[in-house]
Design goal:
By secondary structure, this protein is an all-alpha fold. The protein has one domain: Ribonuclease iii, N-terminal Endonuclease Domain, Chain A (Orthogonal Bundle). The protein is 76% helix and 0% strand. It is built from 6 helices and no strands. The termini are far apart.
């Protein structure tokens, strides 16, 4: 699977995990659902999560390598609400999520639990 495909998959997987998490917290109003979702799914937040995973040494060597490779792929669109560096880190984060979804769902849950406790 290509890094672009992993990013595409990771984006969907992460958003679904976030939505399930928010619903489990009994958030009901549509406006509140959208507000809480934005605390997780913006490029700035995803870049932050990637940074925190690395800084806290939560990731394995292979997972850090996936982030590094993901950060370095060529992007085919320009970011709308953030700088290119932030966008690349967010893409790398999505690639990591897609990779873990395919290869290690237990580890994906560990990473997600780390993120929601930041």
């Amino acid at each position: 699977m290509s890094l672009y495909q992993l990013s595409f998959l990771g984006d969907a997987v992460f958003e679904l995990m976030v939505r399930e998490y928010i619903i489990s917290k009994n958030v009901v109003k549509l406006n509140d659902l959208q507000k809480f979702t934005l605390k997780f799914v913006t490029a700035k937040r995803q870049a932050y999560f990637a940074d925190m995973l690395v800084k806290n040494e939560f990731l394995s060597f292979d997972e850090v390598d996936i982030l590094r490779r993901g950060r370095n792929i060529k992007t085919h669109k320009s970011p709308k609400n953030c700088d290119i560096v932030t966008y690349k880190y967010a893409t790398a984060f999505e690639i990591l999520i897609g990779y873990l979804y395919i290869n290690d769902k237990k580890r994906l849950d560990e990473v997600f639990n780390f993120i929601i406790n930041l």
